[in-house]
Protein: Crp/Fnr family transcriptional regulator
Amino acid sequence: MKIDRTVVRSLSLFDRMSDEDLDRLLAHATARRVVQGDAVFEQGEQAANFFLLLHGRLKVTQVTEDGQQIIVRVVHPGDLFGFAKALQRSDYPGTARAVAESVILAWPTDLWPQFVEQNPRLAVSAMQTIGQRLEEAHTRIREMSTQEVERRVAHAVLRLSRQAGRKEEHGVRIDFPISRQDIAEMTGTTLHTVSRILSAWEARGLVEGGRQKLLIRDLPGLSSLAEGARD
Amino acid sequence: MKIDRTVVRSLSLFDRMSDEDLDRLLAHATARRVVQGDAVFEQGEQAANFFLLLHGRLKVTQVTEDGQQIIVRVVHPGDLFGFAKALQRSDYPGTARAVAESVILAWPTDLWPQFVEQNPRLAVSAMQTIGQRLEEAHTRIREMSTQEVERRVAHAVLRLSRQAGRKEEHGVRIDFPISRQDIAEMTGTTLHTVSRILSAWEARGLVEGGRQKLLIRDLPGLSSLAEGARD
DNA sequence: CGTATTCTTGACTTATATCAATGTCGGTGG
DNA sequence: CCACCGACATTGATATAAGTCAAGAATACG
Structure:
């Protein structure tokens, strides 16, 4: 598959890179289309590549020994993902699956050192990316430790609206198919509880649901709920 | 305070560094003694330094707006901590407090880039450290999402025994003062629940408690509990 | 169309938090 | 050195948020 330079160029990760450097980088990359439902890599697999999401949406999940699944994160366009080797692992710690038709770039993992050395900006950028991810994880831990489910779900939905929101006539739509089960796996609860919460919100005019659909009608209202407003 | 080179030398972080490089690095470092209960830095403070723990034990905590506290991690000798700048923050996201008499090394944050560039091994090492921390965070999220409190506490105690365990006649002792409240803040529960759990374990001969003390008498027993053995 | 997901909703159960009271340790100062 | 105080811990009673179990409805898809 041919690589569309203009798409890559527009990503903040590469914005200060010279055309030659960019070309050199892309020379080693392979572009690939991933259809909805397909996995880019599976948990436990040997990490042969690291990736960049150009277009679409992925979710990264982990399953525990006893079969329970959690969503580790959602990958948005422009995000690096699957750089297990940089974190001294030989296998992928989770499964990355397309929840919408996606386009990715793949590099062989053994190119990571070059990738980083040839362009120090990338090294810094990568470290900051991981740092951000660490902070997100801590935020999630803090929320799970101290907040009840409804607030956690509110926060999760607000995050999604920021990262994957598309403005619509009556509010902000989450721009990819997302099920109640997904939201449950992001917040550490059950789909039943999520369903009840969303139904209650819908009755209050905060959101509008639907099968794998979510529209936020009242952002400020949701925000105040997330901040802990009692009712 | 004078820096003890032999202590530094023994840390894996520096083991393959030449004497000259090490000297160059230490030239910019300041050693400091921190007495029990004192904070090395406080949440929200401008990040002027990054640190290395030489001796002792610290806990890093965060407080939420509504005053609830969680323990983000425990810092063990040899660990880097407080490198907020590397993660593109200007302030410290948490408070680092000595739970035992400690000795730390401090470098000005603006030296971080040199620190990293002059010795690429350190850059890699730092990134791996952050990577590990990210994995730990995900493990914690996974546990909080899927496991009941008793198993989480078991896992937390086992981790502590690995990272801060000292072998004793009747088992493994957690080698620093740790309260029920601390364990609660590490596992996202209350001190009451922790107290009940530890009492039950003590009755079964798994552990031996005490004021800010904890001795694990039956590691295999605890492990099987952590792995989900029904009773 | 019928079949399979996904979602909703009710009834019930349970783990864990909350509230409340009391006990115990260990260091400080009289 | 002993008494007292404050921090830490234990334990019971009660409340409740959220999970589990169960059934059915709605929506999408082949």
